[in-house]
């Protein structure tokens, strides 16, 4: 699907569509920020902020084909603002340079020195050359995609890359390439953005089978799919769903089976409660659909209610409002 259609869906509040845009442009936004501020750690923060800002102001984008260049403008502006404010320095070298821990002091120093050399080399370039060079090695885009993102011609991108090679010389250019290639953001970065957009208040629910759980909550309980299933490197996956006007759930597939147990007055209690306009009708529909309904419907002055079990055995109470 072309950006235009995805952007249109995102503009209508489709978070799954926006997730696809985040996945496509995350390294490009990150590269934009780094090319301005020269700090890998804070470049991630700025890129995240850019995506959150773009989501909040998505209605302002009039041309759906221009999402990339629009995001570039937002990210660059935030990066320049960051430089102007010059936030507090980082506490540790490992935090500042994304250094994996534990490593020896010698390794920290070596990594630190290499990255300082790389930034010094990039700083020696005019911004237009530095921008394209960083984008070329981090974004994962080809020259045409870079030209569309930056809003410049394809020939300009190609000539700037050639000029950067000439200015940096072979050894420095290869060092820049090797260093930047290891600094790309991953799926965790994308998930942080979506979490920020959906709100900090997010309930983490471990599940055994992510597809089965998503189908249950969406097809049977009528919850809203905020972000579809994202497969993880370990073979698992996760998804965001929303409980009516309530909180967002993060369904996270785990290797081990976890059942959430709540006890009230010595008896099993529900994981959460959902409201319905007609409990008896919903009760009949769920039984017909084969959902595990626990016991019979209970008539109560505060509203008829009944309990169901999700695919992992967690109890959910349905209450008539």
Overview of this structure, please?
It is a single chain. By secondary structure, the chain is α+β, with helices and mostly antiparallel strands. The protein folds into three domains: 3-188, no CATH class; 201-253, 2,3-Dihydroxybiphenyl 1,2-Dioxygenase, domain 1, CATH 3.10.180.10; 263-320, 2,3-Dihydroxybiphenyl 1,2-Dioxygenase, domain 1 (Roll), CATH 3.10.180. Helices cover 54% and strands 17% of the residues. The protein is built from twelve helices and ten strands. It has a four-stranded mixed beta sheet, with helices on both faces. Helix 2 packs across helix 3 (40-56), helix 3 (40-56) packs across helix 4 and helix 8 packs across helix 9. The model is unreliable at 88-102 (pLDDT under 50).
Question: Could you write a compact summary of the structure shown?
Answer:
Helices cover 54% and strands 17% of the residues.
Sequence-ordered SSE layout with sheet pairings:
Blueprint lengths: L2 H9 L3 H23 L2 H17 L10 H19 L7 H5 L7 H19 L3 H12 L4 H8 L3 H28 L5 H12 L3 E6 L2 H11 L3 E8 L5 E6 L5 E6 L8 E3 L2 E3 L2 E5 L2 H10 L4 E6 L6 E5 L5 E6 L1
Parallel strand pairs: 1-4, 7-10
Antiparallel strand pairs: 2-3, 3-4, 5-6, 8-9, 9-10
Helix pairs in contact: 1-2, 2-3, 2-4, 2-7, 2-10, 3-4, 3-10, 6-9, 7-9, 8-9
Give the overall average pLDDT: 83
Largest sheet: 4 strands, mixed
Poorly predicted regions are: 88-102
Order of helices and strands: HHHHHHHHHHEHEEEEEEHEEE
Structural class: alpha+beta
Beta-strand proportion? 15-25%
Helix segment tally? 12
How many structural domains?
3
Strands in their spatial order, largest beta sheet: 1-4-3-2
Instruction: Give the helix proportion (percent range).
Output: 40-55%
Radius of gyration equals 25 Å
How many extended strands?
A: 10
